Amino acid sequence: MVQEDYILEAEKLYVSYNEIDIVRNVNFRIRKGEFLGIVGESGSGKTTLLRALMMLKRKNNDIKGNVRFQGRELIGLDEESLRRLRGMEISMIPQNAVTAMDGTKTISSLFHETICMHRDGKIRRRDSDKLASQIMEKMRLEDTGRILKAYPFELSGGMCQRVMIAAAMINNPKLMLGDEPTSALDVTSQLQVIQELELLKSNYQVSMIMISHNLGVISRIADTIAIMYGGRFVEYGSHEDIIRHAVHPYTKALLAAVPDADGKISKGLPGLPPTFEKEMKGCPFASRCEYCIPRCRKELPEDVAISLTHRVQCFRTKELQDDIA
Amino acid sequence: MVLHKIIMQLLHFVIVLLGISFLTFSILFLSPRNPAELWLAGSDGNVGMISEEAIAEQERIMGLDKPFLVQYGTWLGKALQGNFGISFTYNTPVTEEIAKHMGPTVWMTVISLTVTILLAVPLGVLCAVYKDQLLDNVMRIFSFFGISLPSFLTSIIFLWFFCIKMEWLPVISKGGAIGILLPSVVLILQFVAKLTRQVRAIILEQLEQPYVDGAITRGVKFKNILFGHVLKNSAAPILTCISIYVGLAFGGSAVIEGIFSVDGLGRMAVSSVARLDIYVIQGFVLWVAIVYLVVNLLVDILSAMIDPRIKYNRKSGGGS
Fewest 10 Å CB contacts: which of A50, B61, B148, B309? Predict the structure, then answer.
């Protein structure tokens, strides 16, 4: 069985709001311990995709295609089975940990609840505190006794985020989803959170999918990188493929837009991301692409495999590849 | 720290009460009608027959011939000693007058608020959870009528149906439990109609908060999210809503009391205004103000007990 080698597989995944597709034909699969980073601008469908992987639905929200977690299809699974998966097998680190925690409850209560929800018998607060302290100490958080007694608003944003990562790890999940976990933090806290995620990757073999608009952050930890534009993975490949041998004009523009050590950006990307409409014609990037040809505005480019790990959605893949060579 | 807060709050009470009493006194003083004249006219209101001398004499007896500030000062001095003046109409101390009429109003308030809370809070929560479903739609229609029908109309319909058509209850109340039954029901209908919608809106707003999503991603059961998180976060705003009804019930049921002949505070206040019985009005206004202030203080304390963020904001002087 090939499927069992993968923790998560998404096939022909479409996610729509009010019958307008926000995520379009996304395909990927990740192995145990693999870190997939999804990069895209605001409005590219990253968060919608991430929420769909956990089957978190809002009103008028529809998910189509296949999402298999350890070979088990998640689309159409009943709410109780999904609940058992969430926080136990698949956990999520939110963008803003302070607001994602209930301000009327202590951190101790957060851990206690997360553990209790996935156990048949009850667990005493003292025991859950002990487990929470252990995991936080492994994440190199100090003064765990004080943290456990604190309310979320009594901790800094960075500390909350790190506590949230510990809480996401408390039940030893197989897959962790990160919704821009560093974007709301200052640079120092960002670094701490990234180091914590690196630690998880090396020590726990947990698979991770993290979305970000920051290619710099993703390129630091990801094994595989997906570049998302207009709800599609326009380029997908290993870290090396994307950072060293990027082909898609959008990926190149993103790489050029990463500031250097002096904070200078060599080249920005003009124009705005596409608005989502019911019928979309042509390549979503066409209007901003300097390599655009008439065909790009009429037809939708499909995946072109460059290597076993690297694929691009562009009609001019061959020419662009030759350019690099 | 807590004691300091309470002392500050009490000081704030005194200032508010002084302000309210001064304002009420000024408004009554500026009234174009003369309490002495009204007193002499009695219930037939035949003002034309009374001589100027008689009015002046009556003003002197009532203490109305003195300048405004002297009148207010005299009243305030006595009030601080617990003497709120003598009713012009009944010739009894104001405190006694209020105590006499308090019973039915307090009972009506207690009964209507208890039933309202027991009905409206669970109904509001259910309407939010089952938004746009049968119960929510039925409650929306009920609330629409409850809010838009004025209480005097509901009262008259009730009076006609239960007392005249069905003859189940007496038209003129003889006091006691039967007397306050219908007016309490009118109050309950009015309050439940409003509070259910308010609770529904508060719960719906809370259900949209990021911490609910956070709990879902941690695999928390919906039952636990609702009772453990959403209700706790909604408690403070719901309590604030309820506190408004306490004041409304104590002070605002004059019309209902009048229609159902309940000898309560509201009715007392209305008849005192008609006779410009300054001290009784003053006493009533102060009573309502004290009720509001005490209820607000209780809500503040309760909210801080439930939601630690409120305590925290106070400690640090606002903001987190």
Answer: B148
